[in-house]
């Protein structure tokens, strides 16, 4: 696959390549710093997904799909719920009430910290998965119709339908 | 916070059961999605649902012996944290919802095998489990905001389940329910918000104590109004039932059987919880005169909707309108605000859930074999599907309320309660509505049993033709087994009417007293 699929929008493409890693990094910061500052799973999930969505908008949906296949997004959605609910199940197995994080570490303060960390991670994973699935859901409907009409499933063709054709 | 707080020790014999009830289906749902295999997902969903049923049974027995259970989530005691509060009423609801889910889920596999693509089954079961989680959560929680959260979980899963219907119109039905359901849910949320503004708490027990001396009486009144409308939409009480018929008609029949038995019933439970336990019967039915709205709505509901049901040609639609009518009976009992009326309502919640689920399952069997449930075309179906038709007829008797059937207990109790309040006109209308239900069920059974097939379109044709049902056999065992399991439970409940009535009387006594902090909980 070529590094830059089309000659137009070269500036956008180069800038996007530059930006996406930082967006994901910022998303991770918001995720893991959420215990101390503003942030948390919801915001982080949206930011990380926004990185991929930007990539998809500029480089075309096919490329975004090859980076993160829709099946991954589905796995992420359920995995996040599993992490959240699993944290609750672990606290129950350790003899405390549902989601009572005190028992997760040697002392209650650390326990609470670990508990929130795990739960927020679950939220972040699910939100990322849901945002990506929504993006794929809305973009692929149009894409499949266009592909049916043109009969060309190629990378370039698909990306041009998402962007403004010139 | 220590792990051994007084709440745990007070309810040590129940331990983790209340949390387990919610956690099992919630954990199983994402695992279903990850498994992706149709059979594995079904088995897992069935195990999760059955586990919930067993747990619900244990909780039910415990509540019967030791009184209400309070379970603090995260170890944060009641007014601060979220708690689960289980008394007789919600223990019954939990048992009803999880039990129905288990039986109908067994039914679902065979029933959806033809209509939903094999590769999407795992999503169906995951949505089912989430719906179950939501419904159980609404019933179990003792926190007003938590009710809304679980309501959203169950509603979103329900929209998805309805959209699984084999027909594109299912999407429209689902969207319609989505719009109306969201309006209902936001009204409930606004109501809860106003309650929070007026009292500064979300815990139900705490709310019940603080509402009488809330600062702003108007905020409480606004909260009350929003909750009333929101819950009336969600419970499909007569003028606000528009979403129900289409949703029940278009959804996969297993989903319809499940929803008919649980979704509206759980909303009715929330209605009881808010109007009796939280606002208190004196406020709801004395000061605000809620019966002025509910009773006429209920009476119009069961009269008009029974009449509408008579003229339906599709069995699913007929039963859907009949559901709205039966909800009218429940609400009529509830609106009386007497012990007899309230217990009549609660018994009818249980009985109607069982009866309607059985009826929809029988219709599901017919749909599976015949391919349609157009009432006038089911001539002499009894000869082809004797077991299914017998089940339909027996469940139909329960719906009409003939003596020794499930419906009789509740209708008798309702009429008794109406006599007590001397509402003669309503008594007459209840009887008229029962006659109407006899008309639509009787007509269906008559067509199935006796009516000779009209001249077949062509003698040589085989298979399904208009009104000609040669080559149709009895439904497979995978459908008949759960149908008869449900029928047996329904008949058992009908024969032992005093048992359910006893539970309902206990529950209504609790409700009329309003919510009180328990001895064990108050000490902590």
Query: Roughly what is the average pLDDT of chain A, rounded to an integer?
Result: 81
Q: Span from first to last CA of chain B?
A: 12 Å
Strand order of the largest sheet of chain B: 1-2
Oligomer: heterodimer
Number of strands of chain B: 4
Please give the largest β-sheet of chain B: 2 strands, antiparallel
- For the record, give the distance between the C-alpha atoms at the N and C termini of chain A, rounded to a whole number: 22 Å
How many domain modules of chain A? 1
**β content of chain A, as a range?**
under 5%
Rg calc of chain B: 22 Å
Secondary structure: number of strands of chain A: 0
Greatest interface: A-B, 22 and 21 residues
Strand content of chain B: under 5%
Helix proportion of residues of chain B, in percent?
Answer: over 70%
Describe the structure.
- The complex is a heterodimer of chains A (166) and B (524).
- Chain A is mainly alpha-helical.
- Chain A has one domain (10-162).
- Helices cover 75% and strands 0% of the residues of chain A.
- In chain A, helix 1 (10-32) packs antiparallel against helix 2 (41-59).
- Chain B is mostly helical and 524 residues long.
- Chain B contains 22 helices and four strands.
- Chain B has helices at residues 6-10, 17-35, 38-66, 88-113, 121-140, 144-163, 169-199, 204-210, 217-234, 242-250, 253-278, 281-287, 291-310, 315-335, 339-370, 381-384, 386-400, 406-421, 424-449, 477-495, 497-513, 519-523, and strands at residues 69-72, 83-86, 464-465, 468-469.
- A two-stranded antiparallel sheet of chain B has the order 1-2. A two-stranded antiparallel ribbon of chain B has the order 3-4.
- In chain B, helix 11 packs across helix 21 (497-513).
- The longest helix of chain B has 32 residues, at 339-370.
- At the A-B interface, helix 4 of A face helix 2 of B.
């Amino acid at each position: 696959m070529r590094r830059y699929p089309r000659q137009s929008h070269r500036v956008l493409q180069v800038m996007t390549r530059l930006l996406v890693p930082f967006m994901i990094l910022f998303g991770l910061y918001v995720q893991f710093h959420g215990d101390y500052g503003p942030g948390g799973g919801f915001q982080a999930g949206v930011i990380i997904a926004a990185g991929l969505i930007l990539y998809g908008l500029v480089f075309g949906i096919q490329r975004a799909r090859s980076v993160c296949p829709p099946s991954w997004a589905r796995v992420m959605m359920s995995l996040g719920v599993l992490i959240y609910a699993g944290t609750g199940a672990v606290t129950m197995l350790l003899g405390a009430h549902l989601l009572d994080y005190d028992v997760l570490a040697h002392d209650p303060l650390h326990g609470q910290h670990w508990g929130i960390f795990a739960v927020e991670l679950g939220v972040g994973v699910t939100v990322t998965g849901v945002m990506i699935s929504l993006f794929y859901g809305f973009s692929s409907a149009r894409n499949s119709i266009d592909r049916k009409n043109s009969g060309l499933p190629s990378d370039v063709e698909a990306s041009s339908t998402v962007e403004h054709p010139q | 916070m220590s792990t051994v707080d007084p709440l745990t020790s007070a309810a040590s014999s129940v331990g983790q059961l209340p949390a387990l009830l919610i956690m099992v289906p919630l954990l199983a749902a994402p695992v279903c999605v990850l498994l992706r295999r149709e059979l594995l997902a079904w088995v897992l969903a069935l195990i999760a649902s059955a586990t919930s049923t067993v747990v619900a049974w244990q909780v039910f027995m415990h509540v019967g012996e030791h009184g209400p259970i309070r379970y603090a989530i995260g170890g944060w005691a009641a007014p601060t944290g979220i708690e689960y509060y289980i008394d007789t009423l919600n223990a019954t609801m939990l048992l009803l919802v999880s039990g129905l889910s288990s039986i109908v889920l067994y039914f679902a596999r065979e029933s959806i095998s033809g209509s939903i693509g094999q590769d999407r089954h795992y999503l169906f079961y995951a949505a089912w489990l989430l719906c179950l989680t939501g419904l159980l959560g609404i019933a179990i929680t003792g926190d007003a905001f938590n009710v809304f959260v679980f309501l959203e979980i169950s509603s979103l899963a329900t929209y998805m389940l309805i959209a699984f219907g084999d027909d594109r119109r299912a999407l429209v039905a689902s969207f319609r329910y989505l719009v109306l359901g969201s309006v209902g849910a936001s009204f409930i949320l606004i109501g809860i918000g106003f309650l929070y503004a007026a009292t500064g708490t979300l815990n139900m027990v705490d709310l019940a104590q603080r509402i009488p001396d809330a600062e702003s009486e108007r905020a409480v009144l606004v909260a009350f109004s929003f909750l009333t409308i929101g819950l009336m939409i969600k419970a499909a009480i007569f003028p606000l039932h528009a979403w129900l018929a289409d949703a029940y008609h278009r959804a996969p029949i297993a989903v319809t059987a499940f929803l008919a038995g649980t979704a509206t019933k759980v909303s009715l439970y929330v209605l009881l919880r808010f109007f009796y336990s939280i606002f208190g019967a004196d406020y709801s039915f004395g000061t605000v005169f809620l019966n002025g709205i509910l009773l006429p709505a209920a009476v119009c509901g069961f009269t008009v909707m029974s009449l509408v049901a008579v003229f339906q040609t599709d069995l699913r639609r007929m039963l859907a309108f009949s559901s709205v009518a039966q909800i009218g009976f429940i609400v009529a009992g509830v609106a009386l605000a007497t012990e007899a009326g309230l217990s009549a309502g609660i018994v009818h919640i249980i009985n109607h859930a069982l009866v309607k689920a059985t009826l929809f399952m029988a219709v599901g069997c017919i749909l599976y074999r015949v391919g349609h449930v157009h009432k006038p075309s089911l001539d002499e179906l009894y000869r082809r599907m004797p077991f299914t038709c017998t089940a339909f007829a027996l469940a139909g008797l329960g719906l009409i309320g003939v003596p020794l059937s499930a419906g009789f207990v509740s209708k008798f109790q309702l009429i008794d309660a109406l006599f007590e309040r001397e509402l003669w006109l309503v008594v007459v209308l209840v009887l008229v509505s029962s006659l109407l239900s006899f008309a639509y069920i009787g007509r269906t059974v008559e067509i199935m049993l006796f009516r000779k097939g009209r001249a077949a379109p062509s003698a040589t044709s085989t298979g399904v033709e208009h009104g000609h049902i040669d080559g149709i056999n009895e439904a497979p065992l995978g459908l008949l087994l759960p149908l008869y399991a449900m029928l047996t439970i329904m008949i058992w409940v009908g024969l032992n009417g005093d048992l359910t009535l006893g539970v309902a009387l206990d529950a209504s006594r609790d409700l009329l007293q309003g919510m009180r902090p328990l001895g064990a909980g108050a000490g902590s």
